[in-house]
Specification:
A hairpin with a 2-residue loop joins strand 1 (17-18) and strand 2. The longest helix is centred in the N-terminal third of the chain and has 21 residues, at 59-79. The protein is α/β, with parallel strands linked by helices. It is built from 14 helices and 17 strands. The chain has a seven-stranded mixed beta sheet, with helices on both faces. A four-stranded antiparallel beta sheet has the order 13-14-17-16, covered by helices on one side. The protein has a two-stranded antiparallel ribbon with strand order 1-2. It has two domains: 4-30 and 292-413, Aspartate Aminotransferase, domain 1, CATH 3.90.1150.10; 38-290, Aspartate Aminotransferase, domain 2 (3-Layer(aba) Sandwich). Helix content is 36%, strand content 17%. It is globular, with a radius of gyration of 23 Å.
Length: 418
């Protein structure tokens, strides 16, 4: 049975109080809290196995290497991939930059890349860089309900489109994009298909399929430590890419003027890797597997539906993204009107923005230990599409419950918007 009270006990930081009140942490889209199992795995690594991997023949180094490679296998199993198809990076951002730089050599002026208006900056800026070389960047539109406009996507999927890179779940709208359908369209067009899965792999069952060329996600968004990320790539794709970084570990042989590289994935992991990060990520995956990813997804849908119903009772709260919890992840971005202030300003001839600034909302909630994100969420193009400067954002994970959602909704009722 999914028991949030028991789960919360596994997270030391959530058991502390600030000014005599418990923490209501609603910013898991930015980063998740860590269970004791993950913390203990990292401590155990440093106390019992710390050594550099892949390089030494002594027993301690061999044990560390086994831990590192077993973590790689665990990640692969979690998403239905082979061990050799998993590259460890620092985060989703580095994974997508790796692809931008390594795929660049196969592209020419006039080629196109298709993304969407709802992308995180991490899935915009690496591709925008290629515009300097005459490669064109297209954006599929979203509709008024926050869904990807599939017809516009098809229209912009041209014969020159070499790469399609799409977020699976928006970190703002919560929209879950139909990546199976999109990947089929991309493959029919002969395009490389890339998935930004930073917000989906941690929150729902996820399996790679034959149409996914590459998938990127981050460990810290799924109970793992900071500084460890994953790039999945089909083995044949990885073998055909040049390394992103060059240096120690990723070589077979170096002469004075030539080099031969290791097979993938090692050729993409130059230098000493984040071994403890991989170990911690593997422990996080074990924790999530014990909970069951179907249960994680169901729990988040229930919380999201509950909060959206609460918000619907407040006429001054505007929610962005799909109205149906079934079609969105556990993230709710919103803005709040201050109707009294607006009426007063209008009477005095003063023009004000419709909404209370999202930072002010977050600061107000912070006084009660309710922690939400505010600002543009590294998605400024999307904010321009929504015609706002930013939003407040609440996001759920395995340790949140209905009381957390109730406290948030109640506190917003106290902000003076009724």
């Amino acid at each position: 049975m999914y028991d949030v009270r028991t789960i919360r006990e596994d997270f030391p930081i959530l058991n502390r109080e600030v000014n005599g009140k418990r923490i209501v942490y609603l910013d898991s889209t930015a980063t998740t809290q860590k269970p004791r199992k993950v913390i203990d795995a990292i401590v155990d690594y440093y106390e019992n196995y710390n050594a550099n991997v892949h390089r030494s023949v002594y027993k301690l180094a061999a044990e560390a290497t086994d831990l590192y490679e077993n973590a790689r296998k665990n990640v692969g199993d979690f998403i239905g991939a082979k061990q050799e198809e998993i590259v460890f990076t620092r985060n989703t951002t580095e994974s997508l930059n790796l692809l931008s730089y390594t795929l660049e050599s196969s592209m020419k002026k006039g080629d196109r890349i298709l993304i969407s208006e709802m992308e995180h900056h991490s899935n915009i800026l690496p591709w925008m860089r290629l515009e300097e070389k005459g490669i064109l960047l297209d954006y599929a539109k979203i509709d008024s309900n926050g869904y990807l406009d599939i017809e516009d996507f098809k229209k912009k999927l041209k014969k020159e489109t070499r790469i399609v890179s799409i977020v699976h779940q928006s970190n703002v709208l919560g929209t879950i994009n139909p990546i199976d359908e999109l990947s089929s369209l991309a493959k029919e067009n002969g395009s490389i298909f890339i998935v930004d899965a930073a917000q989906s792999v941690p929150h729902m069952p996820f399996r790679v399929n034959e149409n996914f060329d590459y998938v990127a996600f981050s460990g810290h968004k799924m109970l793992g430590p900071l500084g460890i990320g994953v790039l999945y790539g089909k083995r044949e794709n990885l073998e055909n890419l040049q390394p992103f970084l060059r240096g120690g570990e990723m070589i077979k042989d170096v002469d004075f003027h030539k080099v031969s590289f290791e097979d993938s994935p090692i050729k993409f992991e130059a230098g000493t890797p984040n071994v403890e990060g991989a170990v911690g990520l593997s422990a996080a995956i074990d924790y999530l597997q014990d909970l069951g990813m179907d249960n994680v997804r169901t729990h988040e849908k229930q919380l999201t539906k509950y909060l959206m119903l609460k918000f619907a009772d407040n006429k001054n709260i505007t929610v962005y993204g799909p109205n149906e919890a079934e079609k969105r992840g556990g993230v709710v971005a919103f803005n709040v009107k201050n109707s009294q202030l607006l009426r007063k300003a209008k009477n005095e001839g003063i023009r004000l923005d419709d909404f209370i600034h999202s930072h002010d909302i977050a600061s107000f909630l912070d006084d009660s230990n309710v922690y939400v994100r505010s600002g543009h969420h590294c998605a400024q193009p999307l904010m321009r599409t929504l015609k706002v400067t930013g939003t407040a954002r609440a996001s759920f994970y395995v340790y949140n419950d209905f009381e957390d959602a109730e406290i948030l909704a109640s506190k917003l009722g106290d902000i003076g918007v009724q």
